[in-house]
Design a protein that fits this description.
462 residues; alpha+beta; 5-stranded antiparallel β-sheet
Length: 462
């Protein structure tokens, strides 16, 4: 049996590692496609790109493991079934449960490792990756001005060019809005053409403008009704934009340290307790304030009966009552929005807590679906097994997304949303194991067809 166990583990290990890295690669391509616009034109060094890819890949490990488990199990057991090795093992008296036992132990170890990775390594990877993306997004590209689009990445300026020549430096029909004085569009520069270039130390972006003019608002003269702006014409002008503050990627980890995706389950549990206490305190304060405001003495109490009966005082009474109700409505709405926002934040922390465990359990669950499924379809390789695996994983992924979205919308509890896919797939796994154990077809309609034929024959006799 020991040799059989080693044979099964060795047979499983190769496809598992291969499919794991393929899944990581595909998820990484999706990530790069999403952030390609933020990465292009930022002058990133190779080490920075490598570091970003490394941390992004680490983030996808808990997601890639269930995919790899499903694919590898269908491929391995499909190949064993195709080569009649499963039939030989079963005919020698070894049940499917016994065959699955060593691999199940191996998968349980992988599942626990997935949880440990999610709990201790992934928060660090998320922190590093999130802060790097933020810093890269904030880093301003020097020469990324596009035709017909206002370029606003240089603080205090908006630049628009109608045409940009093939050399990437010659610009035509240039408009520059100078907001450095923070008085709106108080300075506008228009030029027919210009040349864009970086200084040798790459600390400044230079625009050499030709045949243009500038408009400068003069607020003091505008008040006196005189000419509100001053116009200056030029044949050649030089403008320098300081890029020194954009040359380095800063460390923004401090901005993300308290984010729920950067915390372990122990830290999440502590954060959830603190947030719940703050939520209850805020709720109690809101209730008390509403009661005090509603029961407070108003100007109405100071009015006498005769004053109330008079038309003027009656109108005054209505105005006071309407103002009071409007105030109460405004306070209630703002506090309701605040409480709902706090509840969403608590739910997101709970989702992250459950996600780490749910993805670890998904490794075992998808293996228990893939192994019997492979033994039923009896096809190895990357053909039918991959197609079947992708179909099942898409269903799992869609259910996970639906559950998570419902939890974030507060339609269901956090644990209900995150565990929805696992709950749905558990009976599917048990059904497939039962079918594979009894060497039955996946969907056997023979008994149903037999019953229908018998019913039809009885009708004909009658």
């Amino acid at each position: 049996m020991k040799r059989l166990h080693l044979f099964l583990i060795k047979s499983f290990l190769g496809p598992f590692i291969a499919t794991f890295f393929i899944a990581i690669f595909l998820l990484l391509m999706q990530f790069l496609w999403k952030y390609i616009d933020d990465l292009v034109g930022k002058g990133l060094e190779f080490t920075q790109i490598s570091e970003l890819i490394f941390y992004a890949s680490a983030r996808f490990v808990p997601v890639a493991l269930p995919i790899a488990m499903l694919l590898a199990s269908v491929m391995v057991f499909g190949k064993l079934g195709e080569n009649y090795e499963l039939v030989a093992l079963k005919s020698s008296g070894i049940s499917l449960i016994r065959i699955l036992f060593p691999l199940t132990i191996f998968v349980i170890i992988i599942s626990y490792s997935s949880f440990l990775f999610s709990n201790y390594v992934m928060p660090i990877a998320n922190l590093k990756n999130g802060s790097m993306i933020y810093d890269i997004q904030k880093k301003k590209p020097a020469l990324n001005i596009k035709e017909g689009i206002f370029y606003k990445d240089i603080e205090g300026f908006s630049i628009k060019v109608a045409e940009k020549d093939a050399d990437g430096k010659t610009l035509n029909d240039i408009i520059i809005y100078d907001h450095t004085a923070k008085n709106g569009n108080d300075k506008v520069i228009i030029a027919r053409s210009g040349i864009m270039q970086l200084t040798k130390d790459e600390q400044f972006l230079e625009l050499i403008l030709y045949n243009g003019h500038s408009y400068i608002d003069i607020p003091e003269k505008k008040r006196n009704g005189n000419n509100p702006y001053r116009t200056t014409h030029f044949k050649e002008d030089l403008i320098r934009f300081d890029l020194s503050s954009f040359s380095k990627i800063n460390n923004s980890e401090a901005l993300y340290k308290g984010h729920y995706a950067m915390l372990s389950n122990q830290q999440l549990a502590t954060a959830i307790d603190s947030l719940n206490i703050n939520f209850e305190d805020r709720k109690a304060t809101f209730t008390k304030n509403i009661k005090d405001k509603y029961n407070s003495k108003s100007e109405i109490d100071s009015l006498t009966i005769s004053e109330i009966l008079s038309h003027t005082k009656q109108k005054q009474q209505y105005d006071i009552a309407i103002n009071k109700l409007q105030t109460l409505k405004s306070i209630a709405k703002s506090n309701k929005d605040d409480l709902e926002y706090r509840k969403i934040i608590i739910t997101k922390h709970k989702i992250e807590w459950h996600r780490k465990i749910s993805l670890a359990i998904a490794c075992l669950l998808l293996f228990l679906i893939g192994a019997p499924l492979g033994s039923i379809i009896r096809k190895g390789g990357f053909g039918l097994p991959v197609l079947v695996s992708v179909f099942f994983f898409l269903i799992y992924h869609v259910l996970s997304m639906i559950g998570e979205k419902s939890a974030k919308d507060l339609s269901v509890q956090a644990y209900e949303g995150i565990w929805l896919a696992n709950i749905v797939f558990t009976p599917i796994a048990l059904f497939l194991i039962y079918k594979a154990k009894n060497d039955a077809q996946l969907f056997d309609f023979s008994s149903l067809l037999k019953s229908v034929n018998q019913f039809l024959k009885k009708r004909e006799i009658q």
